[in-house]
Design goal:
The chain is mainly alpha-helical. It is 68% helix and 0% strand.
Length: 110
Amino acid sequence: MADQSLDRFRDTHSEPQQQFIVDAFVETGEIPTGEAFGIEDVEAAVVVTAFSQHLERNVLQQHGLTLETYFEHVDDDDYPALRKAAAKGEWHVFHDHAMAIAAARKAHGL
């Protein structure tokens, strides 16, 4: 479903529209929804859930982390950069970050 939503998004939005929506997501953490944006609430929820599941299953678990334990160690100031990496599919950013967090947790006996 997430792939279908993303494909529909790419097919129905111009590049400037796509960039505006991605920029809004990076800045606020919310995907703009509604008729004006051509994105339904359920589509946004499916995409966010899919990204979260991918992050946990394909990145964090390799480092012994869950979404919850990972985000315990993420500063609010880092969220825009992480959202940007997720939007671009730059999963190496999360691997590097998760590796550092896992090492710190291990050093502190967590």
